[in-house]
Design goal:
- This protein is α/β, with parallel strands linked by helices.
- 42% of the residues lie in helices and 15% in strands.
- The chain is globular.
Length: 373
């Protein structure tokens, strides 16, 4: 008898967030590759696609509702035709309803990659905050496990809920094929990205966090160009204003939106350092990509940064003061780039740490989790 793990892959049909789309695709592919003997992987998807490009799926179970309607229905506990058995959601979207794990072998596991709707809701639409909070309440009632990417986030989730031992930690990773492309130089020319830059992520919470990074560059290495990845279009004018206010020259900051993985890798290939100025309670996707490529990382101290980076970069600042963060980031950037040897040493440490993150390992742990349940 074959045991089927059904993975909710709504993000591959109607993506709402690029990080969730990547996590869903990478985890599903790794689950197929690591499938134990006697098991297979199927997909649960909303209406809206005729073909799901995921080789190795045993079945694609299409529901009759689009993603928006499905999210609303599952929020109020209507399963709307979702199959039972082993269900794993790489996000919080899942049919969280009463089920019998003991007699029917039904399991439902969901995933939280950040705690923004609880820790910093002001920067998120109210409808999204309400949905996430409602789904977490449903998970508290009906999920057999809730997966988070760091132990630090697990501790905070335990304070928010009564999930207790049902909270499990399985980290994400850079895309499996994430590497510097052979045409990296050409890609950077097309993107208008300079060599020898400092890179930051523009989705690291409120744009004000980028102001801290900009000020640190001005204080530590005022002549270096700065590249901002993942900047939402609506935030680009504010980011440009923060750069000028911090003292960076016009044209010194290059703000880019969402880039394909190969383009991101090409940009990181030109980076002297990656600066992470935010203390968001989230999995730091771009930090992990920088580590993967051996880019020196300088990050403001947060529980998630400390746990993710460990000794693979410089994690500095404990005061939660914006002015102090500028000082310590600037000093750390100076240390990181003080000499070629210093930068090379940090690059080696980053690459060593980057190898700790693997979707293959994440998939193995997901299979183990469902076996334990």
């Amino acid at each position: 008898m074959t045991t089927t793990l059904r993975v909710v892959l709504d993000q591959l049909v109607t993506p709402t967030d690029p990080h969730l789309e990547t996590a869903s695709r990478e985890l599903a592919a790794a689950l197929i590759q690591t499938c134990p003997t006697g098991c297979d992987v199927a997909a649960i998807v909303p209406a809206g696609t005729d073909d799901l490009a995921m080789p190795g799926l045993a079945e694609v179970h299409r529901l009759g509702l689009g993603r928006r309607e499905l999210a609303a229905a599952w929020q109020i506990g209507m399963p709307v035709g979702a199959p039972g058995g082993l269900v794993h959601a790489p996000t919080l979207l899942a049919p969280l309803v009463r089920h019998d794990r003991v007699h029917d072998n039904d399991q439902t596991v969901v995933t939280l990659w950040d705690l923004d709707p609880w820790a910093s809701p002001s920067g998120i639409p109210r409808t999204s905050v309400a949905w996430h909070r409602a789904m977490l309440k449903r998970a508290e009632k009906h999920a057999d496990a809730v997966v988070v990417p760091t132990h630090a986030m697990a501790e905070r989730l335990a304070e928010l809920t009564r999930l207790g031992a049902r909270i499990r930690v399985i980290a994400g990773a850079a895309p499996a094929a994430f590497a510097v492309p052979v045409d990296a130089v050409g890609r950077r020319r097309t993107l208008g990205v300079p060599e020898g830059c400092v890179v930051c992520s523009g989705d690291a919470g409120a744009p004000s966090a980028l102001g801290t990074a900009f000020a640190a560059v001005v204080r530590g290495h005022p002549d270096l160009p700065v590249v901002v990845l993942d900047a939402p279009e609506e935030h680009m004018p504010e980011i440009a204003g923060l750069a000028l206010a911090a003292g960076l020259r016009d044209g010194q900051v290059h703000v880019r939106g969402r880039l394909a993985a190969a383009d991101r890798a090409a940009v990181l290939d030109a980076a002297l350092a990656f600066v992470a100025p935010s203390r968001r309670s989230t999995f730091p996707w771009r930090v992990v990509e920088a580590l993967r490529l051996g880019v020196p990382v300088v990050a403001v101290a947060s529980p998630d940064h400390r746990e993710t980076i460990v000794d693979g970069g410089l994690v500095v600042g404990e005061t939660h003061s914006a002015d102090a963060d500028v000082d310590v980031l600037a000093e750390a950037l100076q240390r990181a780039l003080a000499s070629t040897d210093a930068a090379d040493r940090l690059g080696v440490l980053a690459a060593d740490r980057g190898r700790a993150f693997s979707w293959h390992e994440a998939a193995d742990r997901v299979w183990q989790l469902h076996a334990e349940l």
